[in-house]
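Exercise 7 asks you to align residues with tokens for two separate proteins.
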Amino acid sequence: MGAYFDLMGFADGGWGVDMLRATAVTLAVALAGFGLGSLFGMLSAAASLSQIPSLRHLADGYTTVLRGVPDLLVIYLFYFGGSAVITQLGHLFGAQGFVSAPVFLTGAMAIGVVSGAYQAEVFRGAVLALSRGEIEAAKAYGMGAFLRFRRIILPQAARFAIPGLGNVWQLVLKESALISVVGLVELMRQAQIGAGSTRKPFTFFLTAGVLYLVISLVSGAAFRAAEARAMRGIRRAS
């Protein structure tokens, strides 16, 4: 046990600082991807619920393709596709050789696009769960579309969406480990580096698993607290 704490400690020769720094990178890329996914998801949900057939077909195609394609493939497409575009642009301005796309931005965008497909279904289901009578009453009262969305639809849809969004967040957190394949030194990549340097893979991967679990438990508690707060004053069926 002492050897473990020496290896994962913060003194000279310890990997504690590196592992915590990588954990922060994991959190950052996961939060960025989840935030972008929320934006994509809301836009896709709005399109799928619109009265315009072309928008509904576009939203359906987006969710079908992104939920059916492996996440790793999406990351590769974003990274190598983005790098190819940046390289060509660089050549126009005199740059030589291969120009790599920013790995953090690439990872966040890939995670955002994928998680957006799942969040779109969460948002769409939450809106469909609302009482149509309240929306019709708001229309009859003369509320405009934006005011209806801000005061009627959004607050109530959030109550139904929070549990589903919590599940999507857990998926995003695990997907962040895939970004290591394009060179981002997040928690999984740092564990691989430490394991290769010390020849103690079990120690590093076990530590990475514990750190992932801590993040998951804390964020899960935050989502449960948010759900409880959103459901205050709502009578639940017994």
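Second protein for Exercise 7:
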Amino acid sequence: MTPRGSVSQLLVSVWNRPWVRLVTYLLLVALALWLARKIASVIVTGLVAFALAYLFNPALVWLERRRVPRALGVLLLVLVLGVLAALLVWAGAAQLGSLLADLPRFVKQLGDLGGDLLERLRGVPGLQDAPERLNAAIGEQVQALSQNALPTLQRLLSSGGSLLGGASLVLGWLGQAAFVVTLALYFMLDYPRLGPSVLRLFPSAWQGAVRRLSGDVADSFGGYARGQLLIGLAAGLLVTLSLLLIGIPNALGLGLLLAALNIVPYIGLVIAAVPALLLAIPGGALKIVLVLAVYFVTNQIVGNVLSPYVLGRTSNLSPAAVLLALLVGLTLGGLVGGLLAVPTATLLKHWTEHYWLTSRLHGRGDAGG
């Protein structure tokens, strides 16, 4: 039987060989990647829940400073957000039902508007029979829409959801959202203990660096998230008031829709404009033009003025840097790149100022110059 000391010495001797450590680390990395791929949905769910907890933690801290216990603060936050979510769902459901009921009529009215325009252009060579062709095509589309809209909607609602094994895709997404919210609530309650608990998992020599780096990432992405929340609320309020002045029905629901979709740079506003344009069709060409003008002006204000200013304040970047970061992100990574552009630029700026500009290597460069 081999003595315990001999076994320990043998293990130390083997571990001291560089190729053994290299192979071990590579195997651990491969195992971590394989495991992350297997539980990718769980990781994403946890990250989204933690992001929600981090986003609303300043509000809970503000309440704690006014002697409101964290548990009571979480309850108040849930009540406020629940009312807002119920309002959004109610407005969205009413808007969706109205659109589905009136869609054939909207398509017909849109065809009439186009027909009136083509009637005025009948004298142009090649467009003499354009109104008749357009009316025939519109009639076919309206008939097909009336016959197929309900079966299509039923097929969509009956498709299976994969996440929680529910009976439909809608129920699956609702179940996922409920689970994320529940997990976020537990994160909010335990938030003051989460950081120290995770930090203790790292070696003592690493904990200082890990604390600083995680704080940098949290500040960068948290400032961006809060800035986007403010921008979305401002854009939704602007569109709501403008549509009320024009006389578009369900202006509050359209404003809430824009506030929710505004997180997607530029494209979210375009998507949110589609139901508003459909609701403007019964009012004629003038109302359609006014709605287009509202969303165009809102896009210019939000994209070129409000976003650079607010994100510049919350992310500590100049407005020009915000616009350039968005342009680079959209060019390199599309929508995902646009979402990550500003917080990534903020993080790089922070690291440059705190680690590179204060480093000895940078000081030597200045001295050598």
